[in-house]
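thought: fold this chain, then report.
action: predict
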Amino acid sequence: MSRIGLLPIAIPQGTEVKIDGSEVVVKGNKGELRRRFHPDISIALKNGDLIVTRPSDSKIHRSLHGLTRSLLANMVTGVSEGFEKTLEINGVGYRAQQSGNKLVLQVGYSNTVEFSPPPGINISVEGTNRIRVAGIDKEVVGETAARIRAVRPADSYKGKGIKYSEEKLRLKPGKAGKIGKK
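observation:
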């Protein structure tokens, strides 16, 4: 039995949900999201809550049940509150600047790296070493943050590079750990 799929999704004040067959449109104060779901999974609006049900207990229906409920909950949260990821840049001479809508990174390469965000994503730079990625679609926010981090992932020896702010780096000792062996 899907524990996630059975939970109802509470719709906050000021958020509208329209269900047209297998397509769901969610409008809120931050924007509008639209997504088409699998036609076997039924989505209903009852007493201000979204209810997701499945037709049988087959493996595919059980997996789609929790997935559909999670995607709907992310849509409702996105249009009402939004999502945000924060990245940090560590290293001597490493920095980020905002040039119009683009993000300009200086992370140890001979040339600067320019990054253009996809539509619906806002990138802001705080100081010279913090990048904040915000938007209403959780999937696109996470993908954009991962693409920025992939420009120069944090090094496991010195810790230089781009990392998520909540990410904990375990630094390796390097060659100094081998000195005592003969």
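thought: worth noting. Residues 59-80 form the longest helix (22 residues).
final: tokens above.
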